[in-house]
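Q: Hand in one record:
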Amino acid sequence: MRVDGAKIRALRTANGWNQRELGERVGAREARVGCWERGQVEPSLTHLIKVARALGVTAEGLVRDD
């Protein structure tokens, strides 16, 4: 499973949140959110679900198609 970090970033900015704000909503540090968005680290399934809920999408909606 590959998470689409660019999609997380786009949805986060569309909500007007910075990385710290998204991190606070999902129980992760700002630096970790940045790692997810850059594709350096994959979020755990628990964090993926929390991120999806916070951003108003399904977890599947954050997974890359390729």
Q: What stands out?
A: The chain has one domain: 5-59. The two ends are 10 Å apart (CA to CA).
